Amino acid sequence: MVFFAGFPYAPCLPTLLLLLVSAHTSTAASFTSPWLRDVPLVETSLVKRAQNTTTIPAPIVVAPSQYWDGIDGPWSSFALQVGTPAQNVRVQISTASTFTWTIYDGGCPPGYVADCANSRGFLFETNKSLTWTPNSIFNFDFEVNLNMDTTGNAGFDTATLGWQGAGGPTVSHSTIFSIKSSTYWLGGFGLNPRPTNFSTFVDPQPSFMQQLKTNNTIPSISYGYTAGNQYYQTPIFGSLVLGGYDQNRFTPTNVSFPFFTDISRDLLVRIHSISTNTSFNLASSDLLPSGPISAFVDSTVPTMWLPIDACEAFEAAFNLQYNEALNMYLVNDTLHQQLLATSAAITFTLTAGDGRTVPITLPYGAFDLTLQYPYITSPNTSYYFPLQRANNTQYTLGRAFLQEAYLIVDYERQNFTIAPCAYDNFNPSNADIRTILSPDTVLPNSRRSRFPTGAIAGVIVGIVILIAALAAILWFLRRRKHTEKRRVAELEAKEADGAHAKHSSENETKPFISNPIGGELGGGEIHELTAPHKPFAQEMESPHKIDPNKAGYSEMESEEYFGPGKGFAHEMHGSGPDVYEMQGSDVHEMPGHGEGHGLK
Asked: Which residue windows are transmembrane per the record (predicted)?
């Protein structure tokens, strides 16, 4: 066995290799594990891809406008610049829309609403934009199942997210609808990346999100969003991150949902149950008595559209009164105070395909909203509970739900996540922005390593080869040393053998007559051993012993004695002084190298 650094090589080498590989990989590929399934993360600074050919942009954090807007909220809005020169508007976020829409001056006729333009988030006047390209009047073809479709003047213009001077991302040929209808009181910014088609599908217009990705402005077609809320002691504005999400905004759940097959309702989630911790008149706490349903998550609309029996369970639990004309639940001042005093909470339990669940709990404050004119006319304002009766094609979780839920959508992997917002000890300045990379992104060099992945792999392979080569050299040297020792031993044995043979050859010239040991002369043939080829006397079991110092003698198991080889004098007892010799030619030879073999 070869020894390496004092240890046996065979068991030591795999351990060394494992340690080396672990050491290199830990320094080369150490980064935060994603909680969202199949989503790799990197830090949010600009980093270069392999071979330094292009850059992977950081996610874009879209700052809220710092305003609370709308006649059905209020809601945290976002700033947008449209046209050249830029005109500032405030919009709501639409997770379902593929385009942007604004309000033009036809939406604020004289005497309509006090401070109408500001109430509607300011107006976009297309005739004052040098880059406006009109198309025609088209339907939104949007929210049709909720009977909220409308029409607008469609066209293209430059759009920039954020207030002027904020350095937000710009798209020069963005699809813009300009409307006057009060169906949508504020304008909207669409996050859905599907193209917009006008009348036919032969000339689809790319969405704002798609153009940001095409222009390498965001790392992937994805976003993180929550609507914010005004009912905590300190109001919390909405949050929007393009190409990533804000880890500081939610509690991770490690649960994701696949897109639904209908692309117009892709963010479809399964509601397993709806329950409350408080109810009036000992009503049931189960607010989804007919069992689980699937609902579309859509920030475009403010309310939640649920089955009729669920709505009736809400009515019983909270003493709500249904207004058929508005398809709304208005709340008078008395009931409003009673509901505030209950500290009621409602929990929506969502379930994924693998059975894991995500509870989203909304305090009553999330349902404590206000309707204003022109949505209602008598009175001109009222509290309302954001719940509407729906059939099975209309089930929707609107913006009210997203006050307590954080939504992460990854269009390139076709999945999304809904997690509970983390408002305990929340501090918006502690934003923790995470990047969602495209699946086809080549990961850049790690900031913790100066070598790319290929170079690291090459170094590891080189180290493995070097260790193997060193082990082979050590094995060769060890074997060579062992072989040298054996060769020296053989040479010493041959030298001793040669000296002994020389002594025997000197004795061959001297007549030597031995005493017979159990053999008779003439009683049989005398067989001769080849003494010159047997360096030492070979001893075998026999009752007769001879002097081993006399070359040429051997003992065998029989009682017969076989004398030395040719040329040696043979001696036997005689009665007279005469000495008789036998000719050496009559002696038969027996091989001298085989030990213990029979006579031949």
From this structure: 455-477
Residues 28, 25: Cα–Cα separation, whole Å: 5
Residue 522, Ramachandran bin (φ over 0: left; ψ between -120 and 50: alpha; else beta): left
Nearest to 198 by CA among 225, 177, 171: 177
Distance CA 91, CA 70 (A): 10
Between the alpha carbon of residue 363 and those of residues 229, 334, 345, the distances in Å are 11, 19, 4
Peptide bond into 85 cis (omega under 30): yes
For 24, counting Cβ atoms within 10 Å of its Cβ (0-12 exposed, 13-18 middle, 19+ buried), the class is middle
Q: pLDDT tens digits for the chain (600 residues)?
A: 443 333 344 444 444 433 333 334 333 333 333 344 444 443 334 444 444 456 899 999 999 999 999 999 999 999 999 999 999 999 999 999 999 999 999 999 999 999 999 999 999 999 999 999 999 989 988 899 999 999 999 999 999 999 999 999 999 999 999 999 999 999 999 999 999 988 765 779 999 999 999 999 999 999 999 999 999 989 999 999 999 999 999 999 999 999 999 999 999 999 999 999 987 877 789 999 999 999 999 999 999 999 999 999 999 999 999 999 999 999 999 999 999 998 899 999 999 999 999 999 999 999 999 999 999 988 899 999 999 999 999 999 999 999 999 999 999 999 999 999 999 888 888 999 999 999 988 875 545 445 556 667 777 888 988 898 888 888 778 777 777 777 777 777 666 666 555 555 555 444 444 444 444 444 444 444 444 444 444 444 444 555 555 444 444 444 444 444 444 444 445 444 554 444 544 444 444 444 444 434
Strands (DSSP E) contained in 113-167 are 133-139, 151-161
From residue 449, give the alpha-carbon distance in Å to each of 31, 217, 317, 443: 11, 26, 59, 13
- Separation CA 293–CA 258 (nearest Å): 16
